[in-house]
Specification:
globular; alpha/beta; 7-stranded parallel sheet; UDP-galactose 4-epimerase, domain 1; 16% strand; Rossmann fold
Length: 283
Amino acid sequence: MIVVTGATGHLGRLVVEGLLEKLPADQVVAAVRTPEKAADLAERGVDVRHADYTEPESLVTAFKDADKVLLVSSSEVGQRVAQHQAVIEAAKQAGVRHLVYTSAPQATTSALVLAPEHKATEDLIQASGLIATILRNNWYHENYADTIKQAVETGSFAGSAGEGRVASATRADYAAAAVAVLTGTGHEGKIYELAGDVAWSNAELAAEIGQATGREIGYVDLPAVEHAKVLAQAGLPEPVAGFLVALDANIKDGLLAETTDDLRTLIGRPATPIGVTVAEIAR
């Protein structure tokens, strides 16, 4: 039996759908904070169980009889380590044979603003003694949906990443990799650096948006301080603006630029190009 945490989230739901293409529904457990949101999965025969990262007892119950658990990393920045620790301890208590975790690129060595919580989680997994596989997902194409929409509306977008590149892929690509690990063999103990096949710059993203819309789209590169001001003027809270500026600094430093063969090898096809996602969003 395979348990997917966060199964009604963007990535978790795609993993569940992928598992249902390969396994009978009664072998798939959707562990969710709000079971009502997974009613459609329950109707298809999926075992929907309540599981809240902040309620350890719910996790132990959700993992009962589980052979494998996919820990989809929490979206609550600043609270992830404690929440992930609860999942790891529950998996150990429930006798889970194989834990799979969605981490960040080069999590244990990178200066990426997102890395510390993922490094701490990977350390906890290693210390737990659980057999595990780490999926270090690079950035998602979909993270740029708002940027693409804004560029379509205004003809440009701004940032502070300079000529830095991002080796992103779609959520569906990363979900397919998770499905491959959960349903395949020989992945125990492995760390996969998952990334798109091509790393692109903001100037190239602007060109892709221009190609999709048939008009000139510009990228305006700003100093970090000016970028923060623009984000604040757009109404973003200071912590969010600060995070985005720090992330652009990371991108400028090349921390999301590394491409590898791991993703396309696991999914058995090329990763989805950024232009495909741009075209879907810009339509």
